[in-house]
Amino acid sequence: MKALVRRTSKERDMILKDMPEPIVSDNTVKIKIKYSSICASDIKYYNQVMGPGAKIIPPVIIGHEGSGIIVETGSKIKDYKVGDEVCFETTFEKCGKCMFCKSKEYNICDNRKGLGSKVNGTFAEYVIVPEESLHKLPDGVNLKTATLMEPLACAVHLIEEQIKVKKGDNVLIIGPGAIGFFSSLVAKSLGGKVILSGTNHSAHRLKLASELGIETISGGEGEVKKRVFEMTNNIGADVTVDCVGSEHTLKMAVNLARKNGIIGLGSFPKGEIPFNFEIVFRRQLTLIGSQSSKPSSWIRALELMKENHHIIERMITDSFTLDDWEEAFKLVENKSGFKVVFKMN
Asked: What is the rounded average pLDDT for all residues in the chain?
């Protein structure tokens, strides 16, 4: 099968190559990938030098956002059969014994192995997935749109399970990438009063969000601050969420949060970011991180996907074959599209 492989720890050492098809075990299924979308973390893994403690262990097939059709099942599979259309969580292996595994927070198990980082992922014609990670597609949702289930589940974990946005909260989401877009959707579904901010470069993303009834604003920090303070009687937002991960956007999230407010971290920080914790101390702010998603995130995400798939499917702006992976990666790096997917033959 064709597969996109991160070969070594050297930066940009990626190659499309033929590999043997994966083999099922008792509790796994073999899925023929139909679509797999490119995440910002895939670009990060492509460009990084992988040093000690790196999340990704080469050689490995990257990619973790995918959907497809089951073509083979292990001997102990009970609830799925050949021909089922599925999407899937990214946890492939966990210890099953730690306090986090016992509460099904597999995303923060120290021994977790995830698809596309420590286990072969979805930028290939086939992938192996454990039964516990599988989900059948909601009614009306096609395989192409279902490849976006993973970032939607991450946004559910961030907004609903970690930050716990509630009805009436004033919520500022900074950055209209996939996580920012989906975070806005989740916050609105919980009754939050949401503003999604971006730059002029992201006008097409903001327009799509506005069709979900989300207030959007395009401009610099001054314009965003003016609108937030208008909405909150000069107090600041109850919740701000940085979905960019830069020094500028993190400071913006801190500056526009009210006293006793919550700041959510919805993106990988872009390197080491200098930060003045005195403002957190004096204004009694709460910083909340969010790593990937957990099984409960997917249950809620499936509901949101079913309700909003007619808009979500339009997030996908470009489609490539694996043969054209370099062109696809450049498009994502340049932020020219929104969600870019691989369509498998």
From this structure: 96
